[in-house]
Each structure stands twice: as structure tokens, then as C-alpha cells.
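name: query_chain
kind: protein
chains: 1
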Amino acid sequence: MGFFRRNSEQPERKPSEKGHKELLDAQILAMKAKGDEFDEEILHHVNSAMREGLSLYDEAMAHYLLGDVYENQKRFKEAETETKRALELNEISVKKLDMLLYHSAWVRLGVIYIVTDCPDKAIKCFQESVETLPIKYGGEEGLEGTLALGYCQLANAYLAVFEERWGIERVSYYLQKAIESAHKAIEAYAKYSESYEILGDIYGTEKWGSLHNPFYEPIEAKKFYIEYLATESIGEEDRERVRKKLKNLM
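structure:
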């Protein structure tokens, strides 16, 4: 996608033990945190770790954590800078971020671009994740589920870029791309329920603003909502939400 130059890997730096421990403390807090609960403590540990000196891998993780904190605080420009730096360092580090962290870094960038009204950049971020995941993490356990998540996020990104002033041709284009992405999610992992709900919403929505939906097809919508309800992993609250959507089509 051309976001970063693909530099060759560099030998791993020898980290300071104290720096590595400070970073581990930050990671433990990040795993426990709900929302911005431990943001200030995480910032303290990460900044202390970076002053002590880190390996390339640990430095990538440090920038990832900073991006997480800044996103929580709605400091989106700083979150973008730190997340990009984490991905850049991951490219040249011999040891890589684990699959879910790598994916969530791209997702974070995509979400930042949606929030800051840069939808085309957001779509590129979600595309980068689903295109590079099989290359970097092929054969790893959980790849199919992560890919399905990525394609669903890509579908949602296409749905997020609608502007009524663009007219029906542009609306049709993004709807088609959302449909394709949701189907790719099903291909990647058939039990990933969100993709069925996305497809149900697309086919079951008669109008986008004042524009008629060219893909409106209630029978198709019902089929996908029923598929959603047939998956076992969904909670009762989500199940009830989709039951209501299905009922409205009857």
C-alpha cells in the first residue's frame, strides 16, 4: 500500500533489563485497563522504559502502547504518529508484534482516520491489514478469525464513507465494496457473525438518506439475519437486536 518503506530487518538491540521491566509493567496495566483507567501510569512506565533503552521489538511495543493511550485521550494526531512508528519499527525488527497487535495497530489508524474525517486513508489501513496478515502470519492459529474481523472492519469502513451529495453511483460503489468485504469475512471464517449482520443491514436498508438503495432486497436481508441468529457465539443482547431487525422486515 506504500504507507512505509519496507526496510530490511536490523539486528536486535540489547535492551536494558530495567527498561524491559518498565515496559512489562506498562503492558500488564494496559491488559487490565478499561478505557483510560491506567493511562497516566502506562505513560509513566513507557517513558521510563524508553529512557532506559529498549530492543527494537520493545520499542515497537512502547510506541504501540503510547498510541493506545493517546487514542483513549482523543489526542488523535499523537496517536497516529505513535502507531505509525510502532508499525515502522515492526518492519525492521527481527522479532515481530504478535498477530492481533499488528492487526489492531492498523485498525487503530483506520479508526483515527474515520474520526478525523479521512475515510479514504481509513480504508487503506483496513486493506493493508487484511492484505499483509496472510503474508506475515500465515499458518498461525487464529488467522482466519482475525482476517474475518479485518474484512468486517473494512466493510464497515466502506459504509462509513457515505455522503448523500455523491449521488447514487458513488453510493453503489461503496455498498458493493462493503458486500464484497463481508463475503470475504465469511470465506475466511464462516462462523464470524458480524459479517451476516452487515449483509442483512445492507440488503435490508431501503434508503441511504434520500437515496434509494440499489441493493435493497428484503428476502436476502432476512436470509442473512437468520444466518446471524444461527451462530452460537453471540450474546442475548446482540441476538435481540437482530431479532428486531428481522421482525421489521416481516
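note: The CA atoms of residues 126 and 154 lie 5 Å apart.
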